[in-house]
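Risk register update: the risk of archive-format incompatibility is retired. Evidence:
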Amino acid sequence: MALTLVLVSLFVIVPDAAQAATQELTPATLTVSPGTLTGSVADIRVSDNVRASVAEADVTAGLDLTRWLKPTSASGVISWTPYNDPTCSDPDDLSQWRCVDDDPLTDGNSSIVVATGTTALVRFGVQDFSGPYDVTFDSLTAFAWGRRNTTDPTWDITIWWSSTQECNRVTQAPTPVFANYSSAETAFCGPGGGAWTSAQINDSFAGMRRQAASGPAITVTAAGLVAQYDDRDYQTVATITFTGVEGGSPTVFWEGSRVGTETFSLQVQRPGPVWDTICSDCFETTEGTAAQAAFDGSNTIIDGTVTFRIIDNDLSDDVQSTLSLDWVGLSVITAAGDTGGVGGPPAGPPGQPPFLGLPFLDDLLEKLPEELQVASRAACNLWLFVFLALAIVVGLAIRRSKRKGPSP
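Archived output:
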């Protein structure tokens, strides 16, 4: 009986040295730059509807920028006669625009158009607004650089949209000295109104209409449209760190939602630093159940710390968006041989003997996934225990029968 207990004790099932355990971690820090953080890291440690808010910052590329759109065509020409430049002297091919596309605005009057009739009209098509397109337009202005030649003329500088819709006319009386005359529209003057769009600007014309007087009353040397716009860029980066991390096979969890058109990505840091994207569109407009993502944990634990960042996907967005975070968590498996931090997998316990003293069994087990190694070792222990127990029972029975000897 004593021999049985000794043998059984050699194979009693005990937790394996590589038994997996889970480490659940909460964020150590939450910082936002650029952007504005409302709340603190404590608000994202528990899923409790107490949230931290991250608002994008206006990292503006430029305000009140202007784009000069020069003439490229002419239409509706009545009594505007080109002078001094053979490239715009043929009224039949509507080449008057070539006389007023000067850059700089005045070329010393070497190419001009002159209003010769009591009613003179011309619409100049201009260059397209070719971007950037994520901008807000403040206004569109039609201008003409001109002067009067007689004592009594007036004229209208106006914007035409789609060659049929004339915006508000601005009647002005030019002086004998060349100067800039203009008419601005801060809102779209076509159907629906609202702020100008690049498509509407590209369908617009610079118009000049001469009123009253006779003879060569007004001289113009340059004309066109000027678009004024704001190029706002809203951006944010929220950085979240977890400290005291051991092990590997990491999974990150999060709950939150976004307000606005912006989408956000979740990234993890590796040495370099290099940022690997775990999720490219991680937040919906309404908060649902917690989301999670497992990721490659190699080289993500740097001095016991794992760092994530949440970044907006459109760095030139001209509309501010806000991110609401309820919970962010990290789970890792602490087990020998698991993938962990810098330098690859951590080593197993020093001096661990081969399984049952048989190295070839260890080699076979090491080829299995980690979660199967523990189960396989336990199963082997159990079957060996049963086998040896049966062997001992059979051996004792045989020994007892020999002691009794043959029956009389």
